[in-house]
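sry for the spam today, last one i promise. C-alpha cells for design, 353 residues
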C-alpha cells in the first residue's frame, strides 16, 4: 500500500493528514495526485462519493498556490452549502502545519456583506456554491482574473440541480489559461459536453464503473405489500439501531408523512426537503451531527452533497429513478473506509424495476 510521501506530498501536509488519521491514500488519490503534480493539463476524475476526492484535488492545489500572493489562484465550486463548507474545513485542516494558505468559503444563506468584507483580505482559494459566487462576481466583490486552477466538485450533481448556466458563466469569466478539473461520481453526456466545451484535451481517470456498487456497502432488497412499506421501514430502523440513518423519498409529501409517522413512533427524526429554509436545513443537519437526531428523511435534491458522520444505514422508502441515483443515495454511507448498509423497500409490482 502506497504512502502520501510516495505520491509526492511534502512532510508539512502529511503531518496535517496524520492528525486527521489519514495515513494511506485512497484509489482516487493514488491516481489523481501524482498526475496533477506532474502535469499541467485538464482532468476528468470519476469516483464515488466518500472516496476522498477532496484530498485528491485539494492537496495538489495547496502545493501549487503561492502563499506570498494576495490573489485568488484556486476556485472550487460545489453544489451545496454543506459540501462547500466541508471542503473548506478539510483544506484548513490539511494546512495546520504549513505556510498559511487563506481559504474563503462563500455560500448562499450566509451574510453577504460579511463575505464582501472577507474578500478584502488576501485570499488564495475560494470554495463556493454557484449562485453565491455569481452574485459576488456580478457585484464586483471578487475577480477571477488570477484563477489558475478551477475545480468543479460533484459536477454531475451541479448539473442535476440546474446550475448549468451559472457554471458556464463562471467558466467563461475565468482565464482561458486556467487548468480545469471536473470531479464527478458519474460522467453522463451533460458532463462530457461541458468538458468538450471548456476543457482542453482533458485526461480521464476513473476508479470504478459508473454502475458499479460501492465495495464498502451491503445492498439488500425487502419485498413487502404496499400497506406494509412504512412498517417495514420502522422495523429496519429498529433492527439496525444505527447512530445515523438516512431515509430517501421521492416527494416532499412522502417526506412529511414519513417524518410524522417516525416521530409518533418515538424516533428522534429530522427532515430535509426543498421547502425548508437554509436555516432549517442547517439545524436539521446539526441535530444529526451532534446526535440529537438519529434519522433523517430526505428527498434526493435536499440530500445532495451532504456528509453526515456515523451514517451507517440508507433506506430507499421510494425506489430511485435510475441506477445512478441509487448509487448516489447509497454513497452517503460506506464513506472513507467505513462499512454501510443500503436497503431497498419495494412492493411486489416494483420488484422487477
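last one done:
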Amino acid at each position: 500500500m502506497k504512502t502520501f510521501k510516495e505520491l509526492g506530498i511534502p512532510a508539512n501536509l502529511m503531518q496535517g493528514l496524520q492528525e486527521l488519521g489519514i495515513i494511506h491514500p485512497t484509489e482516487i488519490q493514488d491516481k489523481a495526485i501524482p498526475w496533477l503534480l506532474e502535469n499541467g493539463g485538464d482532468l476528468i476524475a470519476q469516483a464515488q462519493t466518500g472516496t476522498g476526492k477532496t484530498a485528491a484535488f485539494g492537496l495538489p492545489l495547496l502545493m501549487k498556490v503561492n502563499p506570498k500572493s494576495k490573489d485568488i489562484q484556486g476556485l472550487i465550486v460545489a453544489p451545496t452549502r454543506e459540501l462547500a463548507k466541508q471542503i473548506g474545513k478539510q483544506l484548513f485542516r490539511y494546512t495546520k502545519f504549513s505556510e498559511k494558505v487563506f481559504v474563503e468559503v462563500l455560500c448562499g444563506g450566509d451574510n453577504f456583506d460579511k463575505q464582501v468584507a472577507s474578500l478584502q483580505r488576501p485570499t488564495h482559494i475560494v470554495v463556493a456554491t454557484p449562485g453565491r459566487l455569481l452574485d459576488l462576481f456580478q457585484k464586483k466583490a471578487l475577480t477571477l482574473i488570477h484563477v489558475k486552477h478551477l475545480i468543479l466538485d460533484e459536477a454531475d450533481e451541479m448539473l442535476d440541480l440546474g446550475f448549468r448556466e451559472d457554471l458556464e458563466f463562471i467558466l467563461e469569466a475565468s482565464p482561458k489559461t486556467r487548468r480545469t478539473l471536473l470531479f464527478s461520481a458519474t460522467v453522463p453526456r451533460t458532463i462530457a459536453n461541458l468538458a468538450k466545451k471548456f476543457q482542453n484535451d482533458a485526461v480521464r481517470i476513473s476508479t470504478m464503473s459508473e454502475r458499479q456498487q460501492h465495495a464498502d456497502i451491503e445492498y439488500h432488497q425487502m419485498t413487502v405489500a404496499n400497506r406494509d412499506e412504512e412498517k417495514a421501514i420502522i422495523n429496519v430502523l429498529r433492527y439496525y439501531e444505527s447512530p445515523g440513518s438516512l431515509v430517501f423519498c421521492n416527494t416532499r409529501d412522502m417526506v412529511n408523512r414519513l417524518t410524522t409517522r417516525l416521530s409518533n413512533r418515538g424516533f428522534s427524526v429530522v427532515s430535509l426537503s426543498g421547502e425548508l429554509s437554509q436555516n432549517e436545513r442547517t439545524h436539521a443537519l446539526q441535530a444529526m451531527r451532534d446526535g440529537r437526531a438519529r434519522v433523517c428523511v430526505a428527498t434526493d435534491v435536499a440530500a445532495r452533497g451532504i456528509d453526515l458522520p456515523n451514517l451507517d444505514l440508507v433506506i430507499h422508502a421510494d425506489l430511485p429513478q435510475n441506477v445512478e441515483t441509487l448509487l448516489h443515495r447509497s454513497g452517503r454511507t460506506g464513506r472513507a473506509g467505513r462499512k454501510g448498509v443500503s436497503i431497498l423497500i419495494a412492493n411486489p409490482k416494483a420488484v422487477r424495476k
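The mean pLDDT is 89. ok im logging off now
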